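Q: Predict the assembly, please.
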Amino acid sequence: VIWMTQSPSLLSASTGDRVTISCRVSQGISSYLAWYQQKPGKAPELLIYATSTLQSGVPSRFSGSGSGTDFTLTISCLQSEDFATYYCQQYYSFPRTFGQGTKVEIK
Amino acid sequence: QVQLQESGPGLVKPSGTLSLTCAVSGGSISSSNWWSWVRQSPGKGLEWIGEIYHSGSTNYNPSLKSRVAISVDKSKNQFSLKLSSVPAADTAVYYCARGTVGVFDLWGQGTMVIVSS
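A: Predicted assembly structure:
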């Protein structure tokens, strides 16, 4: 099983801030990493796949980077609608696994 | 556009079987996608349960494999989850999702299942 560790678990930020979320993986997964955004009471939504490819319709302020075991999600200029919980997920092997989540809250 | 909708009992007794169905609308379940179940325990993260292809091929999470069965009904354009011998720890929101090369690009709205007597 590939374990995913996100940091921080909680991030307090203000609108307009640049925020970075880290996802560390227990073994190399090449670029087989995705990021999801989840708002309270809603299903997760795909933001990024293949480490850095934006899903259709996702604003360009979101970006992803990394390879191997260390990955990053960056929101360049936080907007009010971005306050949510973010999850990374590996699809290099079975079982598919997710990080524990990073909640981005209003500072 | 393609939409997914989960349905099933919201309350299951301990040691019973949890049964859910995901209806696929606006598209065919026989497309080149895998169809997954993912759950989220209250206040917790996401756990992938397993997936099925329209041919009937499946992949399961080893942590649940002994209790899980996912099936597909192409005539009804839907797929289903059965989770047997459920303890209270199986209480969660259950999502169905469309997988494209392992990425979940479309999700149902989720359905809450409580395991309680």
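Chain B touches chain A at residues 36, 45-48, 59-63, 95, 97, 101-105, 107-110 (CB under 8 Å). The first strand of chain B starts at residue 3 and ends at 7.
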